[in-house]
Specification:
By secondary structure, this protein is α/β, with parallel strands linked by helices. The chain folds into four domains: 3-146, Response regulator (Rossmann fold); 156-283, Beta-Lactamase; 294-453, Reverse transcriptase/Diguanylate cyclase domain (Alpha-Beta Plaits), CATH 3.30.70; 467-714, TIM Barrel. 43% of the residues lie in helices and 22% in strands. The strands form five sheets. Strands 19-20-22-23-24-25-26-27 form an eight-stranded mixed barrel, surrounded by four helices. A six-stranded antiparallel β-sheet has the order 8-9-11-6-7-10, with helices on both faces. A five-stranded parallel β-sheet has the order 2-1-3-4-5, with helices on both faces. Helix 2 runs parallel beside helix 3 (74-84) and helix 12 packs across helix 13 (343-358). The radius of gyration is 38 Å and the shape is elongated. It starts with 16 loop residues before the first strand and ends in an 11-residue tail after the last helix. GO terms for molecular function: cyclic-guanylate-specific phosphodiesterase activity; kinase activity. Residues 464-718 form the EAL domain. Its cofactor is Mg(2+).
């Protein structure tokens, strides 16, 4: 057979026999149908055992195997195929992302792998590529067997080899190299002949490559196989990865003739070698390894890599008697932004957050994305809490500037929990857990801050888990009750409105007030369901009183920040009012200043939409939040509620009295109503009346009471002081 007759095969034969094995019936049918449409002769097997049985009855050019089949898995099928049909190529499919399993399959002879879910175009491309390679291999084997005794055909094999073939003299100088070196590395063969083999090697691999050839036990039966990087021509910084197989040869077997195409010096050869380009395989391995240990969105280390580095850092710190810190970071308001602007914007925000956080790190610190909007940070070699505090403050400061996403200026904060080794944890899991607990305490303290872990937090956390379980049950059973505290006209003593306040009669802990469980509801995401139940009950009760002869009665309801920030807040609230046929003009929602200042533009639009329906807006705990009063004239505010801490100062005559005076005077100037909270004594009531305060509420007229006790109070023209007042 002449070289001209040995043309490379074109595409794989359309009637190539393919075995498809997978335990997922839908995937198996999809793969089989797809291959049949392309003309392949397909045999289906719904299990590993079925695949082995099919291979015993029929030969195949290619097997497409699922790795994780129950019973007989893909690895067992591969082993059986290698013994029964060694020429059958194997492609594996797997939903497993572990680099270990994929690498194991490749080492056992798999020619390629496809990750589930399978992309049809990718599948067909890989199948045809593998069959093409198999066809080339079979052709190559056929040529080799037929032309083994022919020197001219040996030369043909060398010159048409897909690999670089080279020979070295006893000192390591190149005495022959085939033409393939020009296609793969850009060198002409004559440029390299006569030069030392080290000139081709990357500087970092030169010593290792030369040492392998000088090993005393190298022989034709024991060749050296090593992976090295070879330089490309023109750009010395560019390298490609090659697998080199080299062994000594008898110089008498090499014909000293210049007829062989390629470079040849005519000198006796001492070593024969083949260099196979494995760059694509190495890149695939590197990518699989990156996927296994990094977050693909932010390119940060993932949870697995972070734990590995933390474990190593603890070992070093223990041996060197040093300290380290673990920080647990959670983004504030990320969910609202993600729900409002969409997941694509949320992903861009996470990438921007990553860039800012990385600018706050020291060399040697490890920042990882732990999952969702949670990050962890490892700070090795710290001297104490001050080092950690400075980095925490630096990160919080980095979030003060808004993130620009297209036309949106997005504000997001960060809550940070910190655990110090070995003071607050000596193991990897304990440090992460304690930092996580401290982060939740930072959120409970107002968000956008940091908190160091302390032992008392573990006790609180255990109680928190128990309380969370009980709260979920209470919500499912609708066991929470709504009480009402009258808002009384300071001049006439008549009840003008009622503030709805939730209470929980816990079976073991007794009566719990909002401060005992609302922060937990906010933190665990139960606040939405809780608030809906409270508003449903309050609208039902107040609706009865309004229809029973008190048409001007106002219902005041507190709203949590997460409710107001939710993109469906206005729609949900109006739907609840419509469900209960509750008049919008009788409802007053109470929000805090902090909620408004988190995103003034967005909140102002929502409040204006509500005000347009007749709903009144009140600022609760006025004076305790932001000092900027710019929002008062920008928002449809109707009422200011003076915080009870200022009202309490009337009795002691401290600086809080001046704040009460200022708030009431300002409200008069802006034509806003005033409600003073926490009024308990005659002295406080008379002082507020002299200032012109419109309404008061507090223990002076009694605590919040169940709905059954409210109806009689509404019929009293002047509410008397309570005995508890």
């Amino acid at each position: 057979m002449t070289p001209e007759q040995l043309s490379a095969p074109s595409s794989p034969a359309r009637q190539s026999r393919v075995l498809v094995a997978d335990d997922d019936p839908r995937l198996l049918n999809m793969l089989a149908d797809l291959l049949r449409e392309r003309g392949f002769d397909v045999t289906e097997a719904n299990s590993g055992q079925a695949a082995i049985d099919a291979s015993a009855r029929r030969s195949f050019e290619l097997a497409l195997l699922g790795l994780d089949m129950p019973g007989v898995d893909g690895f067992k099928v591969m082993s059986e195929l290698q013994q029964a049909q060694p020429d059958c190529g194997v492609i594996v499919t797997s939903g497993e992302t572990s680099f270990r399993n994929v690498s194991r399959a490749l080492r056992r002879g798999a020619l390629d792998y496809i990750r589930k879910p399978v992309d049809p175009e990718e599948l067909l491309s890989i199948v045809e590529g593998v069959l093409g390679k198999q066809s080339l291999i079979r052709a190559h084997d056929m040529v080799q067997s037929r032309l083994e005794s022919s020197e001219s055909l040996h030369r043909y094999i060398v010159n048409t080899s897909p690999d670089i073939v080279f020979m070295l003299d006893e000192h390591g100088y190149i005495c022959f190299i085939n033409n393939k070196v020009e296609a793969l590395l850009g060198y002409r063969p004559e440029e390299l002949c006569g030069k030392h083999f080290r000139d081709m090697l990357d500087d970092g691999d030169a010593a290792r490559g030369l040492h392998a050839l000088q090993a005393p036990d190298i022989s034709p039966d024991n060749p050296r196989v090593l992976e090295v990087r070879l330089k490309t021509r023109g750009n010395r910084a560019t390298t490609r990865d090659f697998e080199i197989t080299a062994f000594p040869v008898d110089p008498q077997t090499w014909p000293h003739t210049g007829e062989t195409r390629g470079g040849y010096t005519g000198k006796p050869a001492r070593y024969y070698g083949i260099a196979r380009d494995v760059t694509e395989r190495k890149e695939a391995e590197a990518f699989i390894n990156f996927q296994a240990y990094h977050d693909l969105l932010t390119h940060l280390p993932n949870r697995t890599l972070f734990k590995d580095r933390l474990e190593l850092a603890i070992t070093h710190a223990r041996g060197d008697f040093q300290k380290l810190a673990v920080m647990f970071l959670d983004l504030d308001r990320f969910k609202v932004i993600n729900d409002t602007l969409g997941h694509a914007m949320g992903d861009r925000l996470l990438q921007a957050v990553t860039q800012r956080l990385e600018h706050c790190l020291r060399k040697g610190d490890t920042l990882s994305r732990f999952g969702g909007d949670e990050f962890t940070l490892l700070l090795p070699c710290i001297h104490g809490m001050d080092d950690t505090r400075q980095i925490a403050l630096k990160m919080i400061q980095a979030f003060q500037t808004p993130f620009r996403l297209d036309d949106h200026d997005v504000f997001v904060g960060v809550s940070i929990g910190i655990a110090i080794y070995p003071d607050t944890g000596e193991t990897m899991d304990l440090l992460i857990q304690n930092a996580d607990i401290a982060m939740y305490h930072a959120k409970a303290n107002g968000k956008d801050g940091y908190c160091f872990y302390s032992d008392t937090m573990s006790i609180n956390s255990a109680n928190r888990l128990s309380l969370e379980r009980d709260l979920r049950l209470a919500l499912d059973r609708r066991e929470l009750m709504v009480c009402y505290q009258p808002q009384v006209c300071a001049s006439s003593g008549r009840v003008l409105g009622l503030e709805a306040l939730v209470r929980w009669q816990h079976p073991e802990r007794g009566l719990l007030y909002p401060r005992d469980f609302l922060p937990l509801a906010e933190e665990t995401g139960l606040i939405g369901k809780l608030s809906q139940q409270v508003l449903d009950q309050a609208c039902h009760d107040a609706g009865l009183w309004i229809r029973d002869g008190h048409p001007d009665l106002r219902l005041a309801v507190n709203l949590s920040p997460s409710q107001v920030e939710h993109p469906q807040f206005v729609k949900t609230l109006l739907e609840q009012l419509q469900t209960h046929r509750f008049p919008a003009a009788n409802l007053e929602i109470e929000i805090t200043e902090n909620v408004i200042m988190n995103d003034l533009d967005q909140i102002s639009r929502k409040l204006q939409d509500l005000a347009d329906t007749g709903i009144r807006i009140a600022i609760d705990d006025f004076g305790t939040g932001y000092s900027s009063l710019n929002y008062l004239h920008r928002l449809p505010i109707h009422t200011l509620k003076v915080d009870q801490s200022f009202v309490r100062s009337i009795r002691s005559r401290d600086d809080g009295v001046c704040i009460v005076n200022a708030i009431i005077a300002m409200a008069h100037g802006l034509k806003l109503e005033i409600v003073a909270e926490g009024v308990e004594t005659d002295e406080q009531l008379h002082y507020l009346k002299r200032l012109g305060c419109h309404q008061v509420q507090g223990f002076y007229y009694g605590p919040a009471v169940p709905a059954a006790e409210i109806a009689p109070l509404l019929n009293i023209s002047k509410l008397p002081p309570s005995r508890t007042g």
